[in-house]
Write a structure and sequence with these properties.
The chain contains 27 helices and 3 strands. By secondary structure, the protein is mainly alpha-helical. It folds into 3 domains: 108 residues, no CATH class; 129 residues, no CATH class; 267 residues, no CATH class. It has a 3-stranded mixed β-sheet with strand order 1-3-2.
Amino acid sequence: MRLKFLAAALLATATPVLAAPADDFRRLLDDHYDWLLRENPVEATALGVRDHDARIRDIGPVARDRRIAEEQAFLARLEAIPADRLSAADRVNYAILRRMLAEDIEGNRFPQRDMLFTTYFGWHQGFAGIARGLPFRTRADFDSYLTRLGQYPQMNDAALAITANAVRGRYVLPCSVLGGFERTIAGVIQTDPAASRFYEPFLSPRPASIPEADWAALQARARTIIVDVLNPAYRKHLDFYTRDYLPHCARSDSIRDQPGGAAYYAFLVRAFTTTDLSPQQIHDIGMREVMRIRGQMDQVAREANFPTRQAYIQHLRTDPVYYARTPEELMREVARVTTEINGHLPRLFGTLPRLTYTIREIPAETAEGTTTAYYSPGSPESGIAGTYYVNTSKLDQRPLWEVPALSLHESVPGHHFQIALQQEIDIAPFRRNFSSFTAFTEGWGLYAESLGGEMGLYNTPARRMGELSYQMWRASRLVVDTGIHSMGWDKARAIAFMRENTALTEANIEAEVNRYISWPGQALGYMIGRLKILELRQRAERELGDRFDLRRFHDAVLRNGSIPLDVLEPIIVEWIAAEKARA
């Protein structure tokens, strides 16, 4: 009510501004983007904006409430602008900005906002990787980095205070997912500071612009900060976790058993899928997809001369021929496959990103408890490549027949391709640098896996089963995530379902189910997004017939960056009409 009143007041008192809504909207976009840079100072540095180099993000409750109040003010300004008087491009900007602001405001109303970590991420690991996203070319770059490292105790104290409040309210992760989580904290602590992840920038060759004496002083300062500032903060976190958090972990695996949990999960489902689908509808979609993919897996098993799908999957899970013996062997296979994929891209895309990517191993302290791989964006402005991180722990659980589908998703034409393009296309800066919708970004990554068939990568029954297993993995998520958080499933039932229907190994299943339990709703975006992109492609193929150009379709899907599915659909419908007229 209060927000609506404010919007109405702005409409009543701002008639001269509304005479030029495009100008008013442009001022709003500029103000909001400046705000984003100010509130995300590390990202601002990576983007080449050096006004905030001495700061890290303030995650404390006072700053959080201030940000929400400022977003409410932005939303009121936005809703005072008549969207129907904007250009087509700005109507898209309007819709996306409104969703981003409204979801932040709505999400802040739930006490679960105090749950700051999952088995997949946390403030302690995010900060431990801060160097990977920053430029290191000048003395000022190293100085600002060390200044930021010195601020970590304040961030850590704020996070621990918020987490303590969450414990008091019973907003805690389930005991079932926390086995070994302490390693993600303890693993950052290094007695030898030169072995610390925080010291990585000082292991590179000395920049020519920095005198040797100054370089030695910077290195000494870094070692002191690691030993005297960072290690004590991580030990404090570890003590809090083992003494004050772990003993109070939740006995239920479902978010619905927290106070207000059912409403919170419904919000997460809407936010992560950018749809109005209910948990039950998503569960049903998942079951249909499971049955469809199961039939295809049965066929591949017969082609491989195995009597059943289960027999072939057991063979794939246990035959050593399918597994690397060393981390280096696995990384070589990933490098070989990604290089092969690169050669197919010009045939499937008209526009290719300029930014390159590299491959790295997932840090050892998180590898055993996290997923198979993930992607970290680079920065064209700062000269930082994107990074495809590969899990080289538990090698007997990382089959080589998964590598093609995995690489298509995480590198190209999946996450690196889509995100690197978004970083260079001509769209509003807030969308280019800060907008990401799970259903689009992860839906595109899963759709990219299907392009392996058109590249000829799935050229053995094992690789085809790898692709189908990855599809089944994401379809099973729809069933398992909603089952846990809406229908009363526990971890054991979720693992049994994944074991029965996917070809994933035991370690991967365990890590994935822990992720769904600790990060409700996020995993739903993958298959929901893929199905929408496939639906739109099939519609374009049907309506355009021989005039359908796959390269142009892909360009049309990607040219607006990551957008909600309800924004993507009218864009592609309009593109189909334009293609008909062009032909």
